[in-house]
């Protein structure tokens, strides 16, 4: 059975919020046609990712995020399987490795 090794759970990764205000675990998934795949996969739960309606904490504990995280164990959500099929300790790099990320939750800058 295929398994997902979610890079979005790595310490250095941050979630992505798109221009419509939807929360995504990473910047890879919210690309066409993955948005349609996510909408189909989550069904009505997709709206639980709307930051205009829910806080980040509410989204992270939502049924939508629980369903997505459950899919990582069995590889049922194809975009996550495609981008995160290999363990991230295998030395592979992604195009985001050298990008500067801003942590919106962090209150103090060092």
How would you portray this structure in words?
The protein is mainly α. Strands 1-2 form a two-stranded antiparallel sheet. It has helices spanning 34-42, 56-60, 63-74, 78-83; strands spanning 16-17, 23-24. Helix content is 29%, strand content 4%. β1 (16-17) and β2 form a beta hairpin.
In brief, what are we looking at here?
Helix content is 29%, strand content 4%. It is mainly α and 110 residues long.
Helix and strand pattern: EEHHHH
Estimate the mean pLDDT confidence: 81
The rough form would be described as globular
In the predicted model, the low-confidence regions spanning at least 5 consecutive residues are 92-101
How many DSSP H or I helices?
Answer: 4
* Biggest sheet strand line-up: 1-2
Compute the separation of the termini in Å.
43 Å
What structural class do the secondary elements suggest?
A: mainly alpha
The structural domain count equals 1
| DSSP summary, beta strand count | 2
Q: Whole-number radius of gyration?
A: 14 Å
Tags for this entry?
single chain; 110 residues; two-stranded antiparallel ribbon; 4% strand
Set out the fold topology.
Elements: E1 16-17, E2 23-24, H1 34-42, H2 56-60, H3 63-74, H4 78-83
Antiparallel strand pairs: 1-2
């Amino acid at each position: 059975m295929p398994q997902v090794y979610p890079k979005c759970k790595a310490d250095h990764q941050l979630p992505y919020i798109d221009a419509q205000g939807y929360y995504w675990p990473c910047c890879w998934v919210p690309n066409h046609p993955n948005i349609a795949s996510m909408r189909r996969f989550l069904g009505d739960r997709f709206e639980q990712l709307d930051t205009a309606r829910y806080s980040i904490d509410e989204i992270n504990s939502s049924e939508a995020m629980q369903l997505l995280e459950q899919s990582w164990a069995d590889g049922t959500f194809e975009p996550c399987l495609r981008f995160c099929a290999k363990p991230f300790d295998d030395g592979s790099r992604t195009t985001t490795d050298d990008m500067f990320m801003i942590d919106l939750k962090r209150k103090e800058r060092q």
